[in-house]
Design goal:
single chain, ornithine cyclodeaminase, domain 1, eight-stranded parallel beta sheet, ODC_N, Rossmann fold, alpha/beta, 2 domains
Length: 306
């Protein structure tokens, strides 16, 4: 029987289980080889993306769409489904809502990156008000890593709504200023912007996370922020082809072409992190991460059934 999992089922998975699953996959040297780069083609309303990956127990593929005009229609910009198969028989076992899965996956990867770079700070500035921003705020609170947030965005109403959501979780959350950005210990950018959304004057020991884009021409972080920073990415190959923040910093001459290191290497202890430096984690989203979260959703349902 093919099980169906809604967005609510995805959200029901404990944050700790999500982070543990992603971390476990990231540490495994075989993981990146078991997934391929996203493929896509243009559709009338936007883009259709395919992201397959395999593990010993389960294999899956995310079929996602990106429709830039959807927010104006009251619909999610990103939609789709995740189809999960048994790896041995390749029998379909589950179909999972990909909107929440993508949001939880992105935030979960950020949590793994933040922990690898030294951990969350006393105060976090979240730039953006989308479902991704909401997911990052929720996981930080649920994990107990941070309960003091400033929210930054273009639309006052959306900023106020996200701040209210944070307060409903028991956190302190308010609309932030540029000053709040430059003094925050952790800055997370969750926007669809193609040009930088933060200044290059963030704190010298800040952890800056950028998750909003996966194209070479888009960058949420200014190139100047990368000067003398430690830069961590999911995959060097993905970073040099999809991570506009990294690509543009290299082109500007402020980041040496071979300076970025992979998350797995940091987690395995191969690369030490200097907490006195500015640290940057750039994520573009990879198929193995979707599979890690889909697996957590599937296993959570099995454990609940006993």
């Amino acid at each position: 029987m093919v099980r169906q999992f809604s967005g609510e089922d995805v959200l029901a998975v404990p944050a700790g289980s999500v982070v543990a699953g992603i971390r476990r996959a990231a540490v495994d040297r075989r993981t990146v080889e078991r997934s391929v780069a996203r493929s896509g083609f243009r559709a009338p309303g936007g883009e259709l993306l395919l992201m397959p990956a395999a593990d010993d127990g389960l294999t899956g593929v995310k079929i996602a769409t990106v429709a830039p005009d959807n927010p104006a229609r009251g619909l999610p910009r990103v939609q789709g489904v995740y189809v999960l198969f048994d790896s041995t028989t390749l029998t379909p076992v589950a179909v999972i809502d990909a909107v929440e899965l993508t949001a939880v996956r992105t935030a979960g990867v950020s949590m793994v990156g933040i922990a690898a770079l030294g951990g969350a700070a006393a105060r976090t500035a979240i730039v953006g008000t989308s479902v991704q921003a909401r997911a990052h705020l929720r996981l930080l609170v649920e994990l107990g890593w941070c309960k003091d947030f400033t929210i930054h965005g273009r639309r006052t109403e959306a900023v106020d709504q996200l701040a209210a959501y944070g307060r409903s979780l028991g956190a302190q959350a308010k609309a932030g200023t540029t000053g709040d950005l430059t003094t925050a210990g952790l800055v997370i950018c969750c926007t669809s912007a193609s040009t930088p959304v933060v200044p290059d004057t963030l704190a010298p020991d800040v952890i800056a996370v950028a998750v909003g884009s996966h194209t070479p021409t888009a960058a949420e972080l200014p190139a100047g922020l990368f000067k003398d920073a430690q830069v961590v990415v999911e995959s060097k190959t993905a970073a040099t082809t999809e991570a506009g923040d990294v690509i543009q910093a290299v082109a500007a001459g402020v980041l040496p072409p071979d300076a970025a290191v992979e998350l797995g290497a940091v987690l395995r202890g191969d690369v030490p992190i200097d907490p006195t430096k500015r640290r940057i984690f750039k994520s573009v989203g990879m198929a193995w991460q979707d599979l890690a979260v889909a697996t957590a959703v599937f296993e959570n349902e099995i454990s609940e059934r006993g």
